[in-house]
């Protein structure tokens, strides 16, 4: 049984990590969050120690180590811009690290972590759960089996809904989350590059507070992509089903729908890591480079190569004039 510590225990994604720790037969020993609304811990590990101050958490982990009880893994569920600092904390305490996506916001943060990983002889794993999605794995096999000079035309559409709270939280701040292409798009860019090869050219048509869209020319695909967190963008026939999220890849005339199965992959990710097969820093790097580039790209506006939904009228920011 492995001992885990977890950072960011009060947040949205933390329960999936707690469940994954439990499902894989391991235990959560200690957790940290600045916010103390963490009753959810009782559903999984009522004996875990909990801290709201980093220094006390650090002292506790150190004390356990002195008592001969090393933490094996630190799981990181904190805001994106804190990941690298929290990863260093785990490595310095002699633990392997399991970190949420995006591993870091900038390519140079990843390079620095690779050096620290070597210094401590420990591993950093990233949650790249779409690579474990059965339909995505099947699609990758189909692409690999096709003639190597085939280039696919793809429309990636990811429409989800976030309320006004999003813009008040760290997720609405570009310096903290990276903006929506980084925070939400990273899953899809990673998946597309994993299946269709590296980026040859990236164009960003638009990138506002609630949507982003562009064209990604990969080795084996030309992808018009559109991401949105604005409920109003979701087509009526989808809204009528009660859904608030829609994920689709249109590959030629084939619709590859993967709205289901997206949120149940944390346990699978943990199994994969504990089996010694987890995705490391080098696996996450291509997508980190791309989101950094997209975040800093000058938007071109519509040029005829855009995803059809990019032509929708833009929305006003709920708070900014
Ligand atoms: P969240 O805001 O709900 O949770 C973040 C938590 O971190 C909060 O409880 C906050 O109080 C805590 N926190 C902030 N600063 C801290 C600090 N200095 N020390 C300790 N705790 C601190 O966000 P979330 O949606 O749970 O996202 C957390 C991470 O998970 C992000 O990196 C996000 O990108 C990722 N995420 C991944 C998926 C996925 O499908 N893999 C889905 C959602 C979020």
TrEMBL record:
One of its GO terms (molecular function) is nucleotide binding. Pfam families: GFO_IDH_MocA, GFO_IDH_MocA_C. InterPro entries: Gfo/Idh/MocA-like_OxRdtase_C (IPR004104), Gfo/Idh/MocA-like_OxRdtase_N (IPR000683), Gfo/Idh/MocA_Oxidoreductase (IPR052515), NAD(P)-bd_dom_sf (IPR036291). It comes from the Bacteria. It comes from Membranihabitans marinus. Gene3D superfamilies: Dihydrodipicolinate Reductase, domain 2, NAD(P)-binding Rossmann-like Domain. Residues 155-226 form the Gfo/Idh/MocA-like oxidoreductase C-terminal domain. Residues 4-125 form the Gfo/Idh/MocA-like oxidoreductase N-terminal domain. The lineage of its organism: Bacteria, Pseudomonadati, Bacteroidota, Saprospiria, Saprospirales. This is Gfo/Idh/MocA family oxidoreductase.
């Amino acid at each position: 049984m492995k001992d885990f510590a977890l950072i960011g225990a009060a947040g949205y994604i933390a329960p999936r990590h707690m469940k994954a720790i439990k499902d894989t037969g391991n235990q959560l020993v200690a957790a940290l969050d600045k916010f103390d609304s963490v009753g959810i811990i009782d559903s999984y590990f009522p004996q875990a120690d909990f801290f709201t101050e980093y220094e006390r958490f650090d002292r506790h982990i150190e004390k356990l180590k002195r008592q001969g009880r090393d933490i094996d893994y630190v799981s990181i569920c904190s805001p994106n811009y804190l990941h690298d600092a929290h990863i260093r904390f785990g490595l310095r305490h002699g633990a392997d690290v399991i970190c949420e996506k995006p591993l870091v916001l900038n390519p140079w943060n990843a390079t620095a972590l690779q050096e620290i990983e070597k210094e401590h002889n420990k591993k950093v794993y990233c949650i790249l759960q779409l690579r474990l999605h059965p339909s995505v794995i099947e699609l990758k096999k189909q692409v690999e089996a096709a003639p190597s000079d085939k280039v696919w035309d793809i429309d990636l559409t990811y429409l989800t809904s976030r309320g006004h709270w999003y813009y008040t939280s760290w997720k609405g701040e570009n310096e903290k989350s990276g903006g929506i292409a980084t925070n939400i798009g990273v899953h899809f860019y990673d998946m597309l590059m994993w299946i269709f090869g590296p980026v040859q050219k990236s164009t960003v048509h638009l990138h506002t507070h609630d949507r982003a869209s562009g064209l990604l020319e990969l080795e084996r695909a030309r992808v018009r992509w559109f991401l949105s967190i604005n409920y109003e963008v979701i087509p009526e026939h989808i809204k009528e089903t009660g859904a608030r999220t829609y994920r689709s890849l249109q590959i030629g005339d084939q619709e590859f729908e993967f709205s289901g199965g997206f949120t149940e992959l944390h346990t699978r990710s943990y199994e994969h890591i504990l089996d010694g097969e987890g995705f490391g820093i080098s696996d996450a790097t291509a997508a980190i480079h791309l989101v950094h580039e997209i975040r800093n790209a000058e938007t071109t506006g519509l040029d005829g190569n855009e995803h059809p939904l990019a032509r929708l009228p833009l929305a006003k920011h709920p708070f900014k004039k």
